[in-house]
Design a protein that fits this description.
Blueprint lengths: L6 H21 L4 H17 L7 E2 H12 L4 H11 L6 E2 L1 H13 L2 H12 L6 E2 L1 H9 L9 H16 L7 E2 H10 L14 H16 L2
Antiparallel strand pairs: 1-2, 3-4
Helix pairs in contact: 1-2, 4-6, 7-8
C-alpha cells in the first residue's frame, strides 16, 4: 500500500481498520479501497503528530488543505474547522477526516450548500445578516486597502439585492439555496471554503493512481 510501511505494519493496519473502511465506504462517497487509503494517510500524519495517541492534529489538517487542495484563506480557516469539527479538541478523529474529504472531493451540491452556509454564518443565527456579510467581504480585500470598507459595503448591498428572495434584509438558508441552484457560481460568494475543481481533480488523480498499484 505504501513504500514507507513494511509488510507487517501494512497488514496490521489493514486488519485493524477494515471495519472502519467498510463503514466509510457505505456512508460516504468512497469505495472500500479509497477509504482504506484515506485511513492510511491519516495514520501516516498521526505518526508525525506530537501526541500520536491523540490522533492527527488540526494543524496537520490545515497543512493538507493548504498544500494538497490550495485552500489558503486564513480568515475563513477557523470557520472551516469549526464547521467540520465542532469539538474543542485540537485533534481530528478518523471519522471527521474521512467525512471532510468526502465533502471536499465528491460532495453533492446539497452537502456543499449546507456546509458553505454554515461557514458563512459567523454569528450562528441561521441567517446571514449585514454585519456577517460585511466582515466576510471586507476580508476578501488586500490588507491595507483604504477603500476596502466602502467596497465591502457596496458588495453587501449588491449581494443582498440578488440573494434576499423574501426581501427581509437578511439571507436565510432558503434564500441562499434558491440563489445557488439558479446560479451555482454563488456557492462561494462570501469566500473560498472548498477546493477548486482543478485541485480536486489533481488530488483524486494521485489518489486513484496509488490505489491502482495496491
Amino acid at each position: 500500500m505504501d513504500s514507507s510501511m513494511d509488510i507487517m505494519e501494512e497488514t496490521r493496519f489493514r486488519k485493524k481498520n477494515q471495519k472502519m473502511a467498510v463503514r466509510i465506504s457505505e456512508k460516504l462517497h468512497f469505495t472500500f479501497e479509497e477509504a482504506e487509503y484515506l485511513l492510511l494517510i491519516y495514520y501516516k500524519l498521526q505518526k508525525e503528530s506530537k501526541e500520536m495517541a491523540q490522533g492527527m492534529d488540526k494543524t496537520q489538517f490545515r497543512d493538507v488543505l493548504h498544500c494538497a487542495l490550495d485552500m489558503t484563506d486564513d480568515y475563513l480557516m477557523d470557520r472551516i474547522f469549526y464547521t467540520l469539527d465542532k469539538g474543542p479538541s485540537p485533534f481530528m478523529s478518523k471519522d471527521i477526516w474521512a467525512s471532510s474529504l468526502s465533502l471536499f472531493l465528491r460532495g453533492t451540491i446539497e452537502e456543499k450548500m449546507s456546509y458553505c452556509f454554515t461557514v458563512y454564518d459567523t454569528m450562528g443565527e441561521g441567517v446571514l445578516g449585514r454585519e456577517s456579510m460585511f466582515n466576510l467581504m471586507k476580508n476578501s480585500f488586500p490588507t491595507g486597502d483604504e477603500d476596502a470598507e466602502e467596497a465591502a459595503k457596496d458588495l453587501v448591498e449588491v449581494i443582498t439585492k440578488k440573494m434576499d428572495c423574501d426581501r427581509d434584509g437578511k439571507i436565510s438558508f432558503n434564500d441562499y439555496k434558491q440563489s445557488v441552484l439558479k446560479q451555482p457560481m454563488l456557492l462561494e460568494v462570501f469566500g473560498q471554503c472548498l477546493p477548486t475543481r482543478r485541485d480536486v481533480y489533481t488530488f483524486l488523480t494521485t489518489f486513484v493512481s496509488k490505489i491502482s498499484k495496491m
